[in-house]
């Protein structure tokens, strides 16, 4: 009788038989599905005797290694923040196209599973559930507003997935199931406060959209203003879907208090409404600018260039950045999406985080979030803004802060560039205004 050949297919069959012979339940604990990421691996092991574990491990050999790597993508194509989120979606797809054009990852293409959450936290959460439960993705790229990130993160954590979040945010958060590639407060708010206090004065008026990010960002900016012996004259919030009447009170308060700086954390379509209202009121940005962390090329594209001119934004990247890698990225982006497509700092983060994730996946040979996370820690990438690095201490990213002023054509021109890569400190534990000296900072674009 010929000896029986033990193939991978046969071993997979053995695994099925072994598992099928195990009791369906132990006590009151439910038996997990083999690919159920929401079930902790330690619990899976507790169901299986040690001598049978070898068969479970052999299951991975029977997987279809020709299938594409499926990743979830959640950026709004409609809704109040769709302009900037469309730039993030565009950048994500550009990165996927670049990788796939060179053979993919380990000879497997990347296949994005894309939904439009319409700038609605509830839809973000619902679609994240669908991505993990129905589409069976393990890595998720998405979210802009902090309210959407906070809606999605519990879903990601319950499914033992990994979220890549490419947006500046208010800090004071850590999840081992999230990689934060946007700026933390010590990488934009701190530098912007120092610049504004040194250049324009110490009397600030704060205005923001009515949700969590503006509340927390304004709280931090107020702390920095007080550190600089300044004063916050007022703090005003407008609806997320703000229209011209919502800014009448803001304009009246500006007229009454005459601040040196208006710090805006208004997001989405309301941004252009604020800037247009400012222009119609006849204010002078050379003496009293709107300074922001959330006004990007996407929001500027929705306003008249005259309304944009003279105002200030802090970010790690601008479309006008002049380094060779930045120029290549912008050229590729506009070649794919058109010459008028805005290239934002959030788009740049969405672009480089996809590349970082796929490099980590290639090194570990799996999209298992735990293994990808291990490979990501301390990993670096030559991003358009400069060489970035994931900090293993907090899952945030070393970034390059810059400050730019909008010119008469509605284009950002760098006015403050420290030329240094900043370690993320999302809790602002060791940061103060004294960490930055205006005299030591370059004022040329990098």
Can you tell me about this structure?
The chain is an alpha/beta fold and 446 residues long. The protein folds into three domains: 8-62, no CATH class; 69-184 and 323-398, Rossmann fold; 186-316 and 402-440, Response regulator (Rossmann fold). The protein is 38% helix and 16% strand. It has 15 helices and 15 strands. It has helices spanning 8-20, 41-47, 53-58, 82-101, 121-133, 146-158, 189-199, 212-227, 248-257, 270-280, 297-300, 305-308, 324-337, 345-364, 369-376; strands at 69-74, 110-115, 139-142, 162-165, 178-180, 203-209, 231-238, 261-265, 290-292, 312-315, 380-383, 386-390, 397-398, 402-406, 412-416. The strands form three sheets. A seven-stranded mixed β-sheet has the order 7-6-8-9-10-14-15, with helices on both faces. The chain has a five-stranded parallel β-sheet with strand order 2-1-3-4-5, sandwiched between helices. A three-stranded antiparallel β-sheet has the order 11-12-13, covered by helices on one side. Helix 6 (146-158) links the parallel strand 3 (139-142) and strand 4. Helix 7 (189-199) packs across helix 8 (212-227). The longest helix is centred in the first third of the chain and has 20 residues, at 82-101. It starts with 7 loop residues before the first helix and ends in a 30-residue tail after the last strand. The model is unreliable at 1-63 and 438-446 (pLDDT under 50).
